[in-house]
Amino acid sequence: MTRRATGLLLIVAATMLSACATTRNFDDYLNSWIGRDGNKLASAGWGALDQVRQLPNGNSEHSYLPVAGKSISDKCLAIFEVEGKTGKIVHVRHKGGQCKMVKPK
Known about the structure:
Helix content is 24%, strand content 25%. The chain has 105 residues and is an alpha+beta fold. A hairpin with a 5-residue loop joins strand 1 and strand 2.
């Protein structure tokens, strides 16, 4: 294989890898919500609200089943802890091994 062909192959491979859906991308997107208004979750297209649970510290935990575009699988639950006093998101996590997304642009 020539140098030019090898270089082109590396560029194509790097482009394909950067467009892959990964858990890291999903985590990064979830973390970008910390400090934001918890009331904006539904209107931001997070999907169906699965459950709201009151926590002992006065906060609430909102669980969403992400819609297509946020996750590539229905085996994913995005969980946001919303502070009771301010309504701001203070912690995020997810459950399920299929919480993946393509890196947002």
